[in-house]
Design brief:
alpha+beta; Rossmann fold; Jelly Rolls; 3 domains; ten-stranded mixed beta sheet; six-stranded antiparallel beta sheet; 39 strands
Length: about 800
C-alpha cells in the first residue's frame, strides 16, 4: 500500500547558512568543524532521538532504521566513512520523517520517494565532510508524514530541552521560523478592558470591551513579544437564531427608480472623550486570571508556543463587554482598533470594569498581527483600512470585503451558503452573547431591541439595493488606505463567503505598490487550511509572522508567489501564478451559434417544485444540476464547445437579451461541469493515523487533506441579478413586461482547469433555492440567443 503523501513547499530555505542555523539550536558547536566525517554523522544521528533517555535507548531506536535489507543505522555508523551516497542519507531521513519502508517506499528508493512527494532535496550525489552540514540542515526542514517539519517534530519531542539543558524558553528561530519553546506552564492569562470611546448602547457611559491575553510570564523582564490578535464575535458563544431568520418565500418587490449617492465616512467627532487612566499599575501588581475556557484558534495556539502573545477579543455587545452588535459597522472596527493600540503599547487598558486602575502592555514589542477566518478575518481587513498604531500585518481567511456582497448580489437579497434567511440583523442577534448575563440584558434590553428594529429597516430586504447601511460596511472603499502587508486565504468552493470577496480586495490592493499582498486559494469550502497535508501552510504563516512581527529577514515577501492555487483536478498539486484579477485572453461564444436556435424560453416554477418535493437544498441541487427531467421546462441548458486543456481564470461574463411577462424578475446563471472524470474534493478527510502536535503540551489535531472524487456534476461558478438592477446594485430601473432588455452578469471568480474531455454546460434560470428568494408567482422568461453570449477568461 502506497502512502499518498504529496505537498507543495512554497517556503524557501536556501537563503540561510546551514552551519549558523545548526548552531542556533545547539545541534553542533564550534568544535564540529574539526570532527571527522564519521564523527559528524554520529553527532547528527544521535541527536535525532530526543525522546530517548540514554545511549541504550537511542541505539535501540537506531536499530529500527535500515539503509539496506541487511544494514541498520547502528552498524552503518560503526564504519569509518569518508562519504556516503545521498541516496543512503535520504533513506535514513525518510524513515525518521515517519514514512514506512515497504508501505510508503522501497529502501533503495528513499530519495526518489521524497522528491516525488514534493520535498526539496539537495542535488549532490555524495554527502562529504565539506557538505554534511548542508545535508543536516536540509533534513531538518523537510516535511514529516504528520505534516510538520522535521525540526518541529524534534522540538516537540524535547530536542531543545536536551540541547540547552532547559535554559529555554525564550524566542528562538531556525530557518527563518520561530520554534516551539513555551509550554502552558510558561504562560500567564490576563483580562483587561479597553475604552472604545463609543457609547453604542446609549447608556451615557463609554463602552468598555473585554480583551483576553495569553503570553509568556517572563515577557517584559527578559524580552518583549509581538502579539497575534483574533477578533471573534463568537468567542463567548452564540444565540439560537432559528426563530428569527427571514423567510425566503416571497416575490420580488417592484422598485422605484433609485440612484445611490456615496455616503461620507463616519464623523470621528462622535467619538467620546477618553476615560481617565486612574491609578497606573505595573504587571507585578496586576492579578492574573485563569484561561477563559472559550474555544481558541488552532493557528494561534501554534504561535503561542513559539514566542508570541495571543489575544482574543469578542467586541461590542459580547459577554463581559459593553455595547451592542452591528454586524460589521464602523463602531466594531473603531473598538477593535482601540484593542490593537493597547496591545502595541500606544494606549492603556483598565484592569476591571470599574475603570479605576490602568495598565500598559509593557511586555509588547509594539507589533500586532490579526488572524482569523470568516467574521474574524473580516475584522482584520476592516482594521487594516484604519491603520491603527502597531498593526503590522493580517492573515485573513475567508474574509468578507464588503457585507453587501455577503447578504446581497446585484440588487437581490442573497443568502450566504448554508444560511438561507440570515441577514445582518440575524447575525447581530446570533453574536449578542451579552444576553447570557441576565442583569446585563435586563439593563439594555430596550436599547438592544431598538437596534435590531433599526437594523432590519436599514438593511432593506424589501429592495435589496445598495444603500448607506451597506456602504458603511464596504471595506473596499478604503482599501487604498491599507499600508501593511496582507496574506489572504480563501476557498474556491466557499459558497458562504464567496470568492468575490478575496477577488475584489486583491483587485483593490493591486494598485497599492507599497505593500506586499499574497494569496492562497484552496479547493475547500469555508475552512481554515492549517491542518491540510498538501500545503506547508503553517510554515508559510510562521515565516510570514516571523518577518512581519519579529523583523527577521527571511525573504518570505520576495519568495512567496503572488497567488498559490490548489489544482481542481489533482488534490496534491498546487500552482503559482502572478495574477488572478487580470486575464490573459478571453473567448466569446454566441449562444445562438452554440444552440442552433434564435431564442429559448423557460418557466420559473422552481419554488413550487422545490417545496413540493424537497426538504433540503443538497438533494434538490443534486437533481437540478444533475439534469433531472422534471426541471427541463424551468431552465435553459446550453452546451459549451470542447476546449483544449486550459484554465479559466477570473470572472465568466454572461451578456443576455431577455424579456419576462412581469415587471420584476431575477436571473441566475451557473457554469457546470457534468460528469468530471476526476476532481479534487471540496471537503477534507482525516489522514489515517496522522496527527500533529500544535504546541509543546497536549494540543494535537488530526492531519487532513483533500482527495479525488467522482461527481455527477461540479458547480464551477454562478451569479445572480435582479433585472431591475441591471446597471448596478446602486441603480434601480423599471422593467417593462414582455419587452426585451439587455444585461451583463459577472459570475463568481474562479480558477478552474479544464481538459479536452470536460463537458461544460451553462444553466440559465430564475430562483436559486439555496441563495435567492423563492418567488411565489410563476414567471415566464424568453432569451434572444442571437444577442446573447458567454465570455470565458483564460489564463
Amino acid at each position: 500500500m502506497k502512502n499518498n503523501f504529496s505537498y507543495e513547499a512554497f517556503t524557501d530555505n536556501t537563503v540561510f547558512d546551514s552551519t549558523t542555523e545548526l548552531k542556533k539550536i545547539a545541534l553542533i558547536d564550534d568544535s564540529f568543524a574539526q570532527k571527522s566525517f564519521s564523527d559528524k554523522l554520529r553527532i547528527f544521528f544521535n541527536k535525532l532521538f530526543p525522546n530517548c533517555d540514554d545511549a541504550a535507548s537511542i541505539e535501540e531506536a537506531q536499530r529500527n532504521i535500515l539503509i539496506t535489507d541487511q544494514l541498520d543505522l547502528v552498524d552503518f555508523m560503526k564504519q569509518d566513512l569518508i562519504s556516503m551516497p545521498s541516496t543512503a542519507f535520504y533513506t535514513i531521513i525518510a524513515q525518521l520523517l515517519d514514512f514506512n519502508s515497504d508501505l510508503d517506499f522501497q529502501l533503495d528508493e528513499g530519495r526518489q520517494f521524497l522528491l516525488q512527494t514534493g520535498q526539496q532535496l539537495l542535488a549532490e550525489k555524495l554527502v562529504t565532510i565539506e557538505n554534511v552540514d548542508h545535508f543536516m540542515f536540509n533534513a531538518l526542514i523537510l516535511r514529516s508524514a504528520n505534516g510538520l517539519s522535521f525540526i518541529d517534530n524534534l522540538v516537540n519531542d524535547g530536542l531543545l530541552e536536551k540541547n540547552f539543558r532547559q535554559q529555554i524558553p525564550q524566542p528562538l528561530f531556525f530557518a527563518g521560523k520561530a520554534l516551539a519553546v513555551f509550554k502552558n506552564a510558561d504562560l500567564v492569562n490576563e483580562n483587561v478592558y479597553i475604552d472604545t470611546r463609543l457609547d453604542t448602547d446609549h447608556d451615557g457611559h463609554n463602552d468598555l470591551v473585554l480583551l483576553t491575553v495569553t503570553r509568556p510570564k517572563k515577557a517584559s523582564v527578559l524580552f518583549k513579544l509581538p502579539v497575534i490578535l483574533t477578533a471573534s464575535p463568537y468567542y463567548y458563544g452564540t444565540n439560537d437564531m432559528a426563530a428569527d431568520v427571514h423567510s425566503p418565500k416571497q416575490d420580488l418587490a417592484i422598485k422605484a427608480d433609485y440612484a445611490f449617492q456615496t455616503s461620507a465616512d463616519l464623523d470621528t467627532s462622535s467619538v467620546l472623550p477618553a476615560l481617565s487612566s486612574g491609578e497606573k499599575l505595573d504587571h507585578g501588581q496586576f492579578k492574573k486570571t485563569t484561561a477563559s475556557g472559550a474555544s481558541s484558534f488552532p493557528l494561534n495556539d501554534y504561535f503561542l508556543a513559539r514566542g508570541y502573545a495571543v489575544a482574543y477579543y469578542a467586541g461590542l455587545g459580547t459577554r463581559g463587554s459593553d455595547g451592542l452588535r452591528s454586524s460589521g459597522g464602523e463602531d466594531e472596527t473603531i473598538a477593535c482598533c482601540a484593542a490593537i493600540e493597547y496591545l502595541s503599547g500606544h494606549r492603556f487598558a483598565f484592569i476591571s470594569k470599574k475603570a479605576d486602575a490602568s495598565i500598559m502592555a509593557d511586555w509588547s514589542n509594539g507589533s500586532v498581527a490579526m488572524t482569523g477566518r470568516s467574521y474574524l478575518g473580516t475584522l482584520a481587513t476592516a482594521c487594516a483600512t484604519r491603520n491603527p498604531l502597531g498593526l503590522k500585518t493580517i492573515i485573513a481567511e475567508s474574509a468578507i470585503s464588503s457585507w453587501y456582497d455577503y447578504y446581497r448580489e446585484n440588487g437581490l437579497v442573497v443568502a450566504p451558503g448554508g444560511f438561507q434567511g440570515e441577514d445582518a440583523d440575524v447575525l447581530a442577534l446570533d453574536t449578542f452573547s451579552r444576553w447570557f448575563d441576565a442583569a446585563q440584558m435586563q439593563r439594555i434590553k430596550l436599547a438592544f431591541q431598538q437596534s435590531l428594529t433599526q437594523m432590519k429597516q436599514d438593511e432593506d430586504r424589501q429592495t435589496g439595493n445598495y444603500n448607506v447601511f451597506w456602504d458603511e460596511r464596504n471595506y473596499l472603499k478604503a482599501a487604498s488606505k491599507i499600508k501593511i502587508d496582507c496574506l489572504y486565504v480563501h476557498g474556491l468552493n466557499d459558497w458562504n463567503v464567496k470568492p468575490i470577496h478575496v477577488f475584489n480586495i486583491l483587485s483593490a490592493l493591486s494598485q497599492n505598490h507599497h505593500i506586499t499582498v499574497k494569496t492562497i486559494l484552496h479547493q475547500g469550502q469555508h475552512i481554515s487550511p492549517h491542518d491540510i497535508r498538501s500545503l506547508d501552510y503553517l510554515d508559510i504563516c510562521n515565516m510570514w509572522l516571523t518577518h512581519e512581527l519579529f523583523g527577521l529577514e527571511n525573504e518570505v515577501t520576495q519568495k512567496l508567489p503572488a497567488i498559490m492555487v490548489q489544482d481542481n483536478l489533482d488534490p496534491k498539486s498546487w500552482h503559482s501564478q502572478k495574477s488572478w484579477t487580470k486575464t490573459d485572453q478571453r473567448q466569446s461564444f454566441n449562444l445562438s451559434d452554440l444552440t442552433g436556435q434564435t431564442e429559448l424560453s423557460y418557466r420559473d416554477n422552481l419554488s413550487q417544485l422545490y417545496e413540493a418535493k424537497y426538504a433540503d437544498y443538497a438533494t434538490y441541487e443534486k437533481d437540478f444540476y444533475g439534469a433531472d427531467q422534471q426541471f427541463d421546462q424551468a431552465v435553459c441548458k446550453i452546451d459549451l464547445p470542447d476546449f483544449q486543456e486550459s484554465t479559466i481564470n477570473g470572472r465568466v461574463q454572461i451578456d443576455l437579451r431577455l424579456k419576462t411577462d412581469r415587471k420584476v424578475g431575477l436571473l441566475t446563471a451557473a457554469l457546470i461541469e457534468l460528469n468530471p472524470s476526476t476532481h479534487t474534493s471540496s471537503v477534507t478527510k482525516s489522514v489515517l493515523n496522522r496527527n500533529f502536535q500544535i504546541n509543546l503540551d497536549d494540543r494535537a489535531i488530526p492531519l487532513r487533506d483533500f482527495y479525488e472524487v467522482k461527481e455527477k456534476y461540479h458547480l464551477i461558478s454562478n451569479g445572480h441579478i435582479n433585472l431591475q438592477n441591471r446597471q448596478g446594485a446602486d441603480l434601480a430601473d423599471q422593467v417593462d413586461a414582455n419587452t426585451y432588455l439587455d444585461l451583463k452578469l459577472l459570475l463568481q471568480p474562479t480558477i478552474y482547469r479544464i481538459t479536452r474531455t470536460s463537458k461544460l454546460v451553462l444553466f440559465i434560470f430564475g430562483g436559486d433555492m439555496q441563495y435567492t428568494l423563492h418567488p411565489k408567482t410563476i414567471q415566464e422568461y424568453t432569451i434572444d440567443l442571437t444577442k446573447s453570449r458567454i465570455i470565458l477568461p483564460f489564463l
